[in-house]
Amino acid sequence: MNTYVSWEEQWALFAEDFREGKAHIDLTRFGGNATLQLLPGPGFGDLSHPTTNLMLQLMKGRIKNHPILDIGCGSGILTLAVLLLGASSSVGIDIDLEALEHAKQNAALNHLPSCFTSTLPPYEDNTILLMNMILPEQKIVMKEPLKGRLWIVSGILTEQREIYLALTKTWGWQLIEEKEREGWLGMVFQFPAIQM
Fold first, then answer.
1. Is 129 helix (H, G, I), strand (E, B) or coil?
2. First-last CA distance in the chain
3. Residue 17 resides in a domain
4. What does the mean pLDDT of the chain come to?
5. Where is 37: in which H helix or E strand?
6. In degrees rounded to 5, what are phi and psi of residue 91?
7. Angle, CA of 57, 62 and 63, to the nearest 5°
8. Who's near 8: CB < 8 A, 6+ residues apart?
């Protein structure tokens, strides 16, 4: 018995407004006036998971005219959405080469710059950093603490809240907003050393 499910079959089941072989992500509810299209593939992010929705909600009103660095970009959903929401630039980083290729295909589909890499590029102090990853992955990323104007994060379970807040305190982050959806948390942190 073959239990293999193709990416297209999986995305057809879970991705938002999946038709004509693509997910169609309406960005109007997040402050945009465009629809982001995503091809099925191995990169995480089709808006079916609560954490992706939390990230887009928390970005609303914060990213316009700012450079964005999306750590763990997966399908490129956030890296590309921010460009349609008014970010000045956006770079997605992922260690999964298949996800990076998937993200590049999504950039081409939406006629947006292909801005994906497997290594951390130089970035400015006023960069807003995105990280939609589970707690163990965030700990790995932050072994060498990164600085940015704001951090917008998700991937933290509600029962991990106190542990996570204690950890972010060691990173020098200050919590300024928090949302919950289906047992997951999304948070916005200011890096105190950077004046808003």
1. strand
2. 58
3. no
4. 91
5. strand 35-38
6. -130, 130
7. 100
8. 21, 40
Integer angstrom CA distances of residue 78 from 31, 55, 131, 171 = 14, 8, 10, 23
Nearest to 155 by CA among 144, 170, 145, 140: 140
Q: Are strands 174-181 and 184-190 parallel, antiparallel or unpaired?
A: antiparallel
Q: Minimal CA–CA distance to 83: which of 101, 110, 103, 58? A: 110
Domain count, the chain: 1
Q: Please indicate, yes or no, if residue 55 is contained in any of the structural domains.
A: yes
- The pTM for the full model equals 0.91
Give the C-alpha separation, 106 to 3, whole Å.
Answer: 27
At which residue do the structure tokens 């995105």 appear?
130
> Is residue 174 in a domain?
yes
Which residues form the domain of 121?
49-190
- Assign residue 55 the CATH number of its domain: 3.40.50.150
Q: What tokens appear for 95 in the block?
A: 């260690």
Helix runs in 60-172, H state only: 77-84, 97-109, 135-141, 161-170
pLDDT value for 77: 96
CA dist 109 and 37 (Å) reads 7
Say if 195 falls within a structural domain: no
pLDDT at residue number 147: 81
Which pLDDT tens digit goes with each residue over 70-127? Answer: 999 999 999 999 999 999 999 999 999 999 999 999 999 999 988 999 999 988 888 9
